[in-house]
Design brief:
The structure holds two protein chains of two kinds. By secondary structure, chain A is mostly helical. Helices cover 76% and strands 0% of the residues of chain A. In chain A, helix 1 (2-17) packs antiparallel against helix 12 (223-258) and helix 2 (37-45) packs across helix 12. The two termini of chain A are 33 Å apart. Chain B is mainly α. Chain B has 13 helices and two strands, in the order H-E-E-H-H-H-H-H-H-H-H-H-H-H-H. The chains are: A mainly alpha, B mainly alpha. Chain A: InterPro entries: MetI-like, MetI-like_sf.
Chain lengths: 259, 293
Amino acid sequence: MIALLFLYPIFYLILTSFKSPDQLYQPLAMPDSFYWGHYKKAIEKVNVLRGFFNTFAISAGAIGLMVFVSSMAGYVIARIPRKFFQFLFYFFISGMVIPLQTGMIPIFKMGVALHLIDTRTFMILLYAAGALPMATFMYAGFTKSVPREIEESAAIDGYGKFRAFWMIIFPLLLPATGTLIMLNIYGIWNDLFGPLLYLKNPAKMTLMAQVVQFKANTQSIDYGPIFALCVMATLPLIVLFFFTQKYMMKGLVAGAVKG
Amino acid sequence: MLKASTREWWTGFWFILPATALFVAFVYYPFASSVYYSFTEWDSIRPAKFIGWDNYAFLLEDSKMLQAAKNTILITLFGIVVQNPLSLLLAILLNRSFRTKVLLRVAFYLPVVVSLVVTSIVWGQILQYDGLLNHLLERIGLLAWERDWLGDTRSVFPTIIALTQWQGLGYCAVIYLAGLQAIPQDLYEAAKMDGAKAVNRFVHVTLPMLMPATTVVVFLTIVGGLKMFDIPYIMTGGGPGSASYTLTLAIYNAAFRENTYGYAIAGGIVLMIFIMAVTLLQLRVMRRKEVEM
């Protein structure tokens, strides 16, 4: 029964997007046939494919960069007990409580100065930096469960430090990487605040920014196309979620226990 | 020997450098320069003028800002007092083994997967005057309850609070669920052998063992509540009046609507100090409880 309260709005979203225009104002009615008109209209007005590409590129880029820098950092923090690295660790962690809103204006200025404003690169750098503290924390935790002997034998085999890390240690940290992807992809894909501030160019907009923009432009009432656009913007994540939910719950368990 | 450890140090240095550079450039440096700008009058076009504590003093007299602060604190408090116990209850229910378990977990987690933008738009439409909720109320004969849920000064903020709780419940429940599943079963069996009743088992086994999960959930609730932006931004724009204003929305408006950047940043700094103080206090109190068990 309570589950219905959680499922219904999403069900309602999908349902409404298929209702014919004259049914739109009968919220309780079921659509009598699949009406694709709203989708057609939304696609005509908004370049959904472009938005999808931007969103995907930004999410993938940010998560890739985050994994690259934080896995190495977490490894060092867990393995080398020097004061300097421990200090950096707390330095990173303290970043978790700084709200984005605090730095948004200097970040905007920096983006303008570096000619990075309105670029996907800028968004990638920002999201990767934002997700870094948590990721470093998690990689440091996971590294501790990797036996040291593995590195020692890699050194004996003549592996350099970098090669040993990427060829041998990093694959062992895969569960952490998976969890981090799961934890971050929804936040980055769905984020509105970043694109709202730093991506004004319609050609670079993410799906969420497109939705909000479209809603603002359509003014009040034409909910059909807005809902259709919402469905299209959300569908990739829902599909991903259905395929990975089992794995994700496991990841959250691991994350919650290690964190 | 010394040489080996120096080499280790340099390896570590190169390993940690990219993360540090990224962090300093996009988190620490903007934050540090924000601290400076919070003491200036600045519209981002003309150079900033140093005005000391004026921005901070003005924050305390700005009725919109104070309303926003009150709303933000209320959202956070509700998260801790209402959403937390509810999500624990939900997690316990979900932890029982019945057949629909997986389906239910998916259902409760969906609001987390679907973006706040989309859920805000859907709920916005459901809560409209001629929307689904009022139609339903009419159907079951509660005509008197009908209202413009988001347009009415009295109902708008409770509605927003309810929605924030709806949105966060699933996530908290999943973390509690993780915590529940990490409790070794033999603890319960031992308690049963000692003749502990279900209530006692819950109080003396489940709750203490869940303390780490509780710490995480409360932490996330506080941080999420204090940063609340998307729901009021999309659904009400903070209105009517400033009835559903939140701090981040007020700061956003001060910066990008009114071009009072220095003032907006001062608001951000206060919010940050607030979050830090509250979370530090929380972690301190709760970690101590964790040790006691």
